């Protein structure tokens, strides 16, 4: 099989496309033929050497969709469509940047769909992060206001649609004024140009502040995002688009406004039941949700795909078809 292997942290050019034996599944494992996978900023950070504990060489890839090739236990039939995400993929063990991958059975979600693989490949991590942030973490309710910081990211685009369908008023941010109409078409009632300071702009629309904030940019803007919340409001940090893990000299009493709540969402720790993924696939099939897919690549183009991700030009998800 072909696999994109990285032997040391660095630039996209560190990926080497090589032939490897198709791996053999052991107890509790399934061999999956990878049909598509999405690219993620966390993989970019791992590639750069910013993910603690990752040992190289490594096949990256924290998510995929595909078909079961071999399940030694017989639980999954050959050809069953499955998706998988997180749980150590591409970090603790080799992930989806390959034609085949061996995955722990506990990570698999079986599904049925008429959607093409390039669309299905955009779903697992993007949907799980958006849904998990909005519901288990933020507990959104109809009639609330939601600020999405990092609105043109794939998760931000999907979260805006899900929140809009759920009856929320969505404020979405971008640093590029030319993307304002794109965000409005995607479900945002208000688009804010992100200069790094949003509180004044938010309070011009909601004088008391917003009910909820979904922080996707990360630690560099988190303090300002929390200042946009009304008393009793909740902020959830789910992304690190700015590639920053920590907050220097963090002082909670100064950082978090009084009575404002701060939480996080991590799809590697809390995942949704298989039925939730299947329900979402049905929504996409019915046209109730439109996935923002920026561009597709082949596995042979993995270097170009990471170069494009590095450029920050993407609006929506990048998908690779092995």
Automatic annotation (TrEMBL):
GO terms for molecular function: NADPH binding; oxidoreductase activity, acting on NAD(P)H. The keyword NADP applies. It holds the Pfam family ADH_zinc_N_2. Gene3D superfamilies: Medium-chain alcohol dehydrogenases, catalytic domain, NAD(P)-binding Rossmann-like Domain. SUPFAM superfamilies: GroES-like (SSF50129), NAD(P)-binding Rossmann-fold domains (SSF51735). Residues 10-320 form the Enoyl reductase (ER) domain. InterPro entries: ADH-like_N, ER, GroES-like_sf, NAD(P)-bd_dom_sf. Keywords: NADP, Oxidoreductase. This is Zinc-binding dehydrogenase.
């Amino acid at each position: 099989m072909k696999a994109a292997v990285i032997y040391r942290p660095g630039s996209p050019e560190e990926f080497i496309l090589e032939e490897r034996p198709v791996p053999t599944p052991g107890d509790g494992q399934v061999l999956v033929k990878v049909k598509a996978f999405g690219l993620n900023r966390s993989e970019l950070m791992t590639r750069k050497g910013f993910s603690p504990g990752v040992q190289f060489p490594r096949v990256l890839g924290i998510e995929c969709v595909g078909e079961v090739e071999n399940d030694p236990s017989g639980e999954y039939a050959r050809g069953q469509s499955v998706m998988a995400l997180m749980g150590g993929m591409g970090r603790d063990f080799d992930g989806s940047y390959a034609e085949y991958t061996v995955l722990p059975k506990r990570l698999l979600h079986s599904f049925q769909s008429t959607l093409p693989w390039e669309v299905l490949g955009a779903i697992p991590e993007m949907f799980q992060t958006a849904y998990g942030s909005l519901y288990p973490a933020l507990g959104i309710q109809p009639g609330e206001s939601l600020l999405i910081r990092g609105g043109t990211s794939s998760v931000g685009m999907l979260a805006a649609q899900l929140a809009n369908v759920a009856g929320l008023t969505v404020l979405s941010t971008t640093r590029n004024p030319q993307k304002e109409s794109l965000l409005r078409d995607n479900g945002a009632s208000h688009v804010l140009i992100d200069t790094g300071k949003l509180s004044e702009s938010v309070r011009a629309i909601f004088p008391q502040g917003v009910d909820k904030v979904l922080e996707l940019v990360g630690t560099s803007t988190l303090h300002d995002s929390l200042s946009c919340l009304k008393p009793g409001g909740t902020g959830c940090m789910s992304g690190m688009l700015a590639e920053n893990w920590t907050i220097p000299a963090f002082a909670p009493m100064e950082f978090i406004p009084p009575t404002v709540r701060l939480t996080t969402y991590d799809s590697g720790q809390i995942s949704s039941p298989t039925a939730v993924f299947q329900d979402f696939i049905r929504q996409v099939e019915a046209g109730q949700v439109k996935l923002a897919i920026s561009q597709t690549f082949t596995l042979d183009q993995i270097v170009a795909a990471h170069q494009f991700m590095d450029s920050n030009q993407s609006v929506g998800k990048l998908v690779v078809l092995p």
